[in-house]
Amino acid sequence: MAVCEVRAIPPFSLSGEAGTVQRDAERFLDGVELARARAMAPAAGARFLAGRVAQRVFAAELMSVPVTDLCTAYSCPRCGAGPELGHGRPGYTYRGVRLPLALSLSKAAGWTLLAAVVDASPETRLGADVEDPSGTRFDGFDALALTPAESIELRLAGPDQLPAARARLWARKEAWLKMTSDGLRTAPSTLDVRERDGLRDLGPAETGLPAFLAAAVALSTPVQGNGSGGSSSS
Ligand SMILES: CC(C)(COP(=O)(O)OP(=O)(O)OC[C@H]1O[C@@H](n2cnc3c(N)ncnc32)[C@H](O)[C@@H]1OP(=O)(O)O)[C@@H](O)C(=O)NCCC(=O)NCCS
How far apart are CA 60 and CA 67, in angstroms? Predict the structure, then answer.
């Protein structure tokens, strides 16, 4: 059974650490990532760079290779793949060879959640997501995000538990949709995430995230032997 490694990176102070992030980004990241950050508002760009630096350090540590020898190898179902692509499903090459590492990244409330499977087959797909319950407090969330069956189930939650219950489902949906690579091109209200093989919640003891944030991971690996799809996680 594949083992999923997770790491949570705390928020950084924009005034105190932005210079360090920029220096690390210029040392470690690729031009396509620096260019994407330059196109963002300064605070968003700094958060993006911090996430990419943390992800690259995480990948290098897991694979025991120098962080400066990695190159981005992202892929997007719409735009394709290649070193010039700065968005989509994360991946890296090391000296021109794709690392056997499935990766996923998510940011919420200043925190970054990283997840990885080491020694992953090329078909392994991983998705992780972290959500801030405060982001679910708007009229129309249930119609936009939930299936009818999920909405009925949430009616059992008291008003105090509702934001956390919504965030838990939303984190599961985004984790699943990153695992499939579809993202929100798939309407979340069509995806029931109450029970799915390979999909599970991540608790604060496992991730190091604060308990108020909801997190989930989805992992799909091919079933050994018959070549057909399936999933497993631990
Ligand atoms: C995947 C998605 C649901 C994440 O949204 P989010 O809640 O805003 O952001 P999160 O912080 O949780 O996750 C962002 C990370 O998701 C990952 N991601 C983005 N698209 C992904 C995809 N298609 N498959 C897997 N992972 C993806 C990236 O690692 C990204 O990190 P980055 O900011 O360093 O690039 C959203 O980006 C989406 O729906 N993307 C698909 C549509 C799209 O990308 N269109 C534009 C390009 S054609």
Answer: 5
What whole-number distance in Å separates Cα of residue 158 and Cα of residue 176?
26
Ligand 1: atom nearest CA of 182 is: 23
All structural domains of the chain with their residue ranges: 4-220
Residue identifier of the C-alpha nearest atom 38 of ligand 1? 183
Minimal-distance CA residue to ligand 1 atom 48: 78
pTM: 0.94
Overall CATH class of domain 4-220: alpha beta
Interval 129-171: pLDDT, tens: 999 999 999 989 999 999 999 999 999 988 899 999 999 999 9
* Residue 129 Cβ < 6 Å to ligand 1: yes
Residue 19 has pLDDT above 90, yes or no: no
| 220: enclosing H helix or E strand | strand 214-220
